[in-house]
Design a protein that fits this description.
By secondary structure, this protein is α/β, with parallel strands linked by helices. 29% of the residues lie in helices and 17% in strands. It has a single domain, classed as TIM Barrel. The longest helix has 15 residues, at 46-60.
């Protein structure tokens, strides 16, 4: 049975945060100091995560699972969870290209440890990977992440490619006055290293409450900067995917932009989220959460959990309202919700 929200959008994608912890302190996400981590007992176990994912896949024909954090690779024994999720199967009668197959299984990471575990993650069944890289200048990278891990991230990208991930996608959050001078350089990095760079508009989910609309570098600005040097041809409409994509006219790869602020894709959104402490959310910017963990730990049946998920999706709103007077910033930061 497909899961359809009040606005006619079918839920296909479950984003799963496996931890709120991170080994970076990115300025657009976390404070430099003072983060209070969830107690281990509050974090869902792998078995609990697998159960929720199985219900979403088998009951609602969800065919895409993405693991996030915090930084998901700091969760011990992550390949064990990947192996469990890769064993799930989308029902054969689903209206999905993955009917009868495993759901699409992806990971978003800062890449700092991939040089050590990319092959193991791939071997466990991980299909796709996105790696964050906001600057190609080591000193600026350290200022933005508050960690000296630049070379390790570059090694991680190479390790992901060597492990067979194709394509490897590189995410870059662009903030005006911080790294917008590197848009073309990042695009060139993608062309030279056969990765798809995806630029992300700066969103109001920073812990320091410093987000301002004038710090957002728009999709139009990003595309214009690249196209002035490397002519682009836009690809077909993204559908439910978050990124608009272009190919280089000379054939050397593709580039994407996630315009969450200036051209939000809420009208086609097919995503829901599970936080590391077991709260079900219908949007990154949702102000309400639904407590799945309480059901998991108090003897609830699969039908009980199915009912909660269906009820939660019944509250999914039309859009996040960024830039409108009605916008309310979530109480949790990106690292606590799951990117």
């Amino acid at each position: 049975m497909e899961l359809v929200d009040p606005h006619g959008r079918t839920v296909r994608d479950l984003r799963i945060s496996v931890t709120d912890r991170c080994n970076f302190r990115c300025t657009y996400c976390m404070p430099e100091e003072g983060m209070v981590w969830l107690e281990k007992s509050h974090i869902l176990t792998f078995e609990e995560i697998e159960r929720v994912a199985r219900i979403c896949v088998e009951h609602f024909h969800v065919d895409s699972l993405r693991l996030t954090g915090g930084e998901p690779t700091v969760r011990a024994h992550l390949p064990v969870l990947i192996d469990k999720l890769a064993a799930l199967r989308v029902p054969s009668d689903a209206t999905s290209p993955r009917a009868g197959k495993a759901p699409d299984l992806a990971l978003t990471t800062n890449g700092s440890t991939l040089r050590n575990n990319a092959a193991e993650l791939r071997g466990a069944g991980l299909e796709r990977i996105n790696i964050s890289l906001d600057s190609l200048q080591r000193e600026k990278f350290e200022r933005m992440t508050r960690r000296d891990e630049f070379e390790n991230v570059l090694e991680g990208i190479r390790a992901a490619q060597a492990a067979g991930f194709d394509p490897v996608k590189v995410n870059a959050v662009i903030e005006r006055g911080v790294n917008d001078d590197e848009i073309v350089a990042l695009a060139e990095f993608g062309r030279e290293h056969a990765v798809e760079v995806r630029f992300i508009e700066f969103m109001p989910l920073d812990a320091s409450d410093e987000w301002e609309r004038n710090k957002v570098v728009s999709q139009d600005e990003i595309v214009s900067a690249i196209a002035a040097v490397y002519p682009l041809r836009q690809l077909a409409a993204r559908g439910a995917a978050p990124a608009d994509r272009w190919e280089y006219e000379d054939g050397r790869g593709t580039v994407g932009v996630i315009p969450s602020v200036t051209k939000p894709f809420c009208g086609d959104c097919d995503r829901v989220r599970l936080t590391s402490d077991g709260q079900f959310r219908t949007c990154l910017f949702a102000t309400n959460e639904f407590d799945v963990r309480a059901l998991l730990r108090n003897g609830a049946s699969d039908d009980d959990i199915t009912d909660l998920i269906r009820r939660a999706v019944g509250t999914k709103w039309a859009g996040h309202q960024i830039g409108h007077v009605t916008f309310v910033k979530p109480r949790r930061t990106m690292s606590q919700i799951g990117g």
